[in-house]
Amino acid sequence: MNFLICSTIWLLSVHLLRENMSCWGLRSADGTPDRPHSDPKYSWETLQRQKRNWVWNQFFVLEEYTGTDPLYVGKLHSDVDKGDGNVRYVLTGSGASSIFTIDEKTGDIHATKRLDREEQGYYTLHAQAVDSKTNAPVEDESEFIVKVQDINDNEPKFLDGPYTAGVPEMSPLGTMVVQVTATDADDPTYGNSARVVYSIIHGQPYFSVEPKTGIIRTALPNMDRETRNQYVLIIQAKDMVGQMGGLSGTTSVTVTLTDVNDNPPRFSRKSYQYSVLESVPVPSVVAKLKAADADIDSNAEMDYHIIDGDARGVFNITTDEDTQEGVIFLQRPLDYETKSSFSLKIEATNRNIDPQFLTFGPFSDTAAVKVIVEDVNEPPVFYPLIRKLMVSEAARVGTVIGMVSASDPDSSRLLTGVSRYSIDRNTDLERFFNVDALTGVISTAKALDRELNSVHNLTILATENQDPSQVGRGIVLIRVMDINDNAPVFAIEYETLLCENAAPGQVIQTISAVDKDEPPSGHRFYFSLAFSASNNNNFTLRDNKDNTASVLTKHADFRRQEQSLYLLPVLIVDSGSPALSSTNTLSVRVCDCDVDGIPQACGTVAFSLPQGLSTGALLAILGCIITLLVLMLLIMAMLRRRKAPLFLEDERDVRENIVRYDDEGGGEEDTEAFDMVALRNLNIIRDSKVQDISPETASVYPYSASAISRTSYKTLPDNIVFQEFIWDRLKVTEVDPSAPPYDSLQTYAFEGNGSVADSLSTLELPSSDSEQSYDYLSNWGPRFKKLADLYVTPMKQNHGTRVW
Hints:
- This protein is mostly beta strands and 804 residues long.
- The protein has 8 helices and 42 strands.
- One of its GO terms (molecular function) is calcium ion binding.
């Protein structure tokens, strides 16, 4: 029994291309069957040893079939099948029923769908011949493969495109730029469908591409980035080895020429000129210039230098890293009067020079720069700027110390009569000095004291008269010279301790002195005992000739109980001219010392109680003392309470009390409170206003009210009126028994003669022709008796007298 597999006529034409290929079996070049698997049962040897009813072959089907009918693949047939319909063919496996169908009776296989080899290259199927009635297998199941035959249906594609690449400018011919790769999805093992060649469509004659490798290279030498820096290439990849009918794909390649340092810096001009004011401060920028360089980035970096000129040290130049400009800045102040122009030679040099392009050089350039200094109105300048003067601290006020002078740098003439000198008082707060505004002569304004301030640092101002905004400043250092005006004193406050058992001639203290003065040759002090102590029997003093002196004892057996403290006056004289001296007292305390001479107890010996006096006796004595003190305090308190007051409350003149209302008038515009017409009437002559004395004291005073008013104040001038009035009041106060026994201030509101405003006192009594009566005050009770006595009785006796 043989299994017959037949292919279509067009498939046979494809199979004939292969070597040793027949319709019954597919064999390789060596004669062995082409099997999809390495299973031994499908091997060629097994087929020869066993007689099988199936004849196995591979089926081939073209991809991308575009016909309307199902594509015939092949035919299955078994020897068991006698054509009577008892055998039925069954197809299973990958794509069975969905892609491949089989006629159960005839065994014809068709492909019902369009196949794509790039999606699936082959399908594995299983064939089975069964009894149509019992479905029992009549043949063993066998496996076969349907391969999808490739056609050229995919164009090459650049999966990594579009490309960007860079190549240095000035590269030699054939320099590799980049490699492009195209991929074809067709079967590379069958035909030329996947064999690709490359070509350049756009980008010639600058670049070329290798057909097989896709490597792009430069086609021209020395391409200049400064001329053109970018190129866009179109590369084509075509299958079928580039033959007619092949499919193709393209991609773009952007090639950028990277910069190299092949261009030297160049100044646009050979000379530059700039102007600058002489007043610009250091380090101001004077000018900027730039050398042009066609390169970019690090290849255009450059350094600037001043290589020649007449301004060394005045100017310097540096590179602005952002703009690559040369920045000329000032290093020293300018002075138009000294030098009005400067000439410089500037060099610009590339910082990163490529030795490969040294033939393109030199990579530097020079330019001449002229800087013109412009004159400005400058403030006065002191010569010298710092002046040192000396003055004795004994100098009198007005002593001339020295002189300062300033000049105008614009005219080079002294400013005498052109400016004014003054002292910045912030530097002379206590105003020790003055300066003459016209001459600049400095003199003392106050007494000086070197010990308080030995150096005065003054700032002198010179101001131009024509332009006060121009102010020059100079420094004057005045050193105060010392005189011997301070006496020497003890260096410290000495505490001298003397042991009771001190031996005669023992040094108990070494003293030294200090002096605020500073003589040029140094201090020399002379020590001695003061005249009052020169003949004492206890101590002596020895001058050591080294600005110190030693105090020694004259005898032994000092007794602390007899005298615990000795005051020793020491006379100290300095070596100044004239010499000054001072007497300083040295306190010597007698102490009880141990065997090593260390003081144990000093000062007065403590009082010890008699042994026969008990504690009870002491408490009794203390109680008596306290009782006496209490009695004395009680007596003093009683005497104080009985002491008569200086002022008699009942007889105090109430007219001397001042009552403040703090009620202000409205001025001349206030016509409601006062009649301003009366104030302006200067022809009305008022009676004199004299304070009256109280009725109670009028009878005891030698000067009564009638005596006080004996002088007609109306006929006297104002100054005489006040003088007479104060004199009368003084006499009244002197005879007043209730006046205090000490000086006191008494205020009288006497307005003087001729007041056109009349008296504004609320206590003024009505005149004789007034109908005002104060008799009702007598009926108000005891509390108003004093007030009634003041107003009712005087009105009946002295009509017309005003009381204040």
